[in-house]
Write a structure and sequence with these properties.
Layout lengths: L5 E3 L4 E3 L13 H6 L2 H8 L7 H16 L7 H9 L4 E8 L6 E7 L5 E7 L5 E6 L7 E6 L7 E8 L2 E9 L9 E7 L10 H9 L4 E4 L12 H12 L2 H9 L2 E3 L3 H4 L13 H14 L12 E5 L2 E5 L7 E5 L2 E3 L3 H13 L4 E6 L14 H4 L1 H13 L5 E5 L4 E8 L5 E8 L17 E5 L6 E8 L6 E8 L4 E8 L6
Parallel strand pairs: 10-11, 11-12, 14-17, 17-18, 18-20
Antiparallel strand pairs: 1-2, 3-4, 4-7, 5-6, 5-8, 8-9, 10-22, 13-14, 15-16, 19-20, 19-21, 22-23, 23-24
Helix pairs in contact: 3-4, 3-6, 5-7, 6-9, 10-12
């Protein structure tokens, strides 16, 4: 078998120059949900055995997480990182892309200062930033600012002049300029997809400026066992394929049920407490690199050039007492924030994410807006119409497969929903609804490993957006174009 991973041993830095279609271990979703040491080790080696130093570090650290409520600052974990010559235990991970800055996340295994050198690809000019006062095992974030809009950069992370991490990015266009922006999205990696170099290399070849991940990403059914949430995040961070994605594409993330407590759970489930929910929020916030959260959940909005992204929390804020027979899908605070933020937005295009589907056409609306809160969904759609919130695109996940829908309104306006819940290649419900009158497309199957992509061309009233569904081989399975006028209420 030919492996496709080449490793630099001084840190968790992997280079994936070629596609390797062979898979050494095929772990099922059911097994991944169990996630014992044997299964997680198979995931670790699913596309070829990792180098022994990284492998031994992972096994040592996972054993600590499994037997006690250890943190990444645990002495045995730090000692293992140093023993196996790892200067970074996690990262780098990019996030919060702006016209003149980007956020960088990492978890160092050293207390020594780190230097980040950013180079403009065009003029080769370099700018240095320093991370100081580091505590080994603690997450570090730094804003790389003072950059030029819509410009390609590379960066490297240095410890005592030795490179321990690297990547690249392209800053967002300035808000009021005409430019092209490419944003990829999807859901349901489910741990098994995080290690797939074929899919991740295809995403990187598309050169997106950002990627939105809508849940079921790195943690699988760990409930309130915070120690095992940490173990799953460690499994993510030692993945060579994942490291390449996170180091080169700014990521924006929200959770769904499997990241949260367990399948189909939301709010404060029975057996769990408010303290459990708060602990999950804290571990989530610590292990992702999102912009500032807006409330008690994990929801936020941010601008990427002419596009404003609204990432919703459709799990932890649900309440059952606020709407009689229906629960409140977003909770009062998040709902008020969303409506105000949509009214205030001046972006040409708006992407609104939902962990589960906006439409009720698949699986009888299982765990979707229709089975929880049709009233809130109607409030949002009506506000988009009455307040003339232009350029809205809806994205969703949860129901394994890939589907597109038009959502007709009585005013003859149509909203469009795109679901790409196939990052992990897990078979789901039927691709097409029983009544497919308003369905644009549908794909499913255990071999479907695909992601969604929006390409925005901002040219005033002549602006356009193209949606593509792309599989791991780079084949375009679906392509749908929309003019800006089609997205005007």
């Amino acid at each position: 078998m030919r492996y496709c991973i080449i490793i630099v041993f001084t840190a968790l830095t992997f280079v994936l120059p070629t596609i390797c279609w062979g898979q050494k271990h095929k772990v099922t979703l059911k097994e991944a949900h169990v996630g014992n040491a044997d299964i997680d080790t198979k995931l670790l080696d699913s596309y070829g055995r990792l180098p022994d130093n990284i492998r031994q570090f992972y096994l040592t650290a996972r054993a600590q997480f499994a037997k006690e409520n250890a943190e990444f600052t645990n002495d045995a974990i730090i000692a293992a990182a140093q023993k196996y010559n790892l200067q970074l235990m996690g990262g780098p991970m990019l996030g919060n892309l702006q016209a003149t800055s980007v956020s960088l996340w990492l978890r160092a295994a050293t207390n020594n200062d780190l230097r980040i050198v950013v180079k403009n690809r065009s003029n080769k000019k370099e700018k240095s930033y320093w991370l100081m006062g580091i505590e080994a095992g603690k997450v570090q974030r730094i804003t790389l600012d003072g950059l030029t809009p819509n410009t390609a950069y590379t960066y490297r992370i240095e410890l005592e002049k030795k490179k321990v991490g690297e990547g690249g990015f392209t800053t967002a266009p300035a808000i009021d300029t005409e430019a092209s922006i490419r944003i990829t999205f999807g859901s349901c990696f489910h741990k098994i997809g995080l290690h797939n170099p074929n899919l991740i290399q295809t995403i990187l070849k598309r050169k997106p400026q950002a990627m939105l991940l809508l849940g079921d990403i790195a943690v699988d059914d760990r409930e309130n066992k915070i120690n095992m949430h940490r173990a799953d995040y460690l499994l993510r961070d030692v993945s060579g394929a994942w490291e390449q994605l996170a180091a080169n594409v700014p990521l924006y993330t929200s959770w769904d049920d499997h990241d949260y407590f367990n399948n189909d759970l939301s709010g404060i489930p029975s057996r769990f407490t408010k303290a459990d929910v708060q602990a999950l929020r804290e571990i989530w916030q610590n292990n992702w690199n999102n912009p500032e959260y807006k409330g008690k959940g994990i929801y936020f909005n941010t601008r990427i050039g002419s596009v404003e992204v609204f990432m919703l929390d459709t799990r932890s804020c649900r309440r059952v007492e606020e709407r009689g027979e229906y629960g409140s899908y977003l909770g009062k605070e998040q709902m008020e924030w969303l409506k105000a933020a949509l009214k205030e937005s001046t972006a040409t295009f708006k992407i609104i994410s939902s962990g589960t589907m906006w439409s009720d056409d698949i699986s009888n609306g299982k765990d979707s807006w229709g089975t929880w809160d049709t009233a809130a969904r109607e409030e949002i759609f009506r506000l988009i119409e009455t307040e003339k919130v232009n350029g809205v695109l809806l994205i969703s996940g949860d129901r394994h497969g890939a589907r597109g829908f038009q959502i007709p309104r009585s005013s003859e306006f149509k909203l469009y929903e795109f679901e790409a819940a196939s990052l992990g290649g897990v078979k789901g419900p039927p691709a097409m609804a029983q009544d497919a009158t308003n369905q644009l497309f549908g794909h499913y199957g255990k071999d479907l490993k695909a992601f969604g992509e929006f390409t925005f061309e901002t040219k005033g009233e002549s602006s356009t957006v193209i949606f593509r569904l792309i599989n791991e081989k780079g084949e375009i399975m679906e392509e749908h174009s929309f003019t800006y006028s089609q997205l005007l209420p």
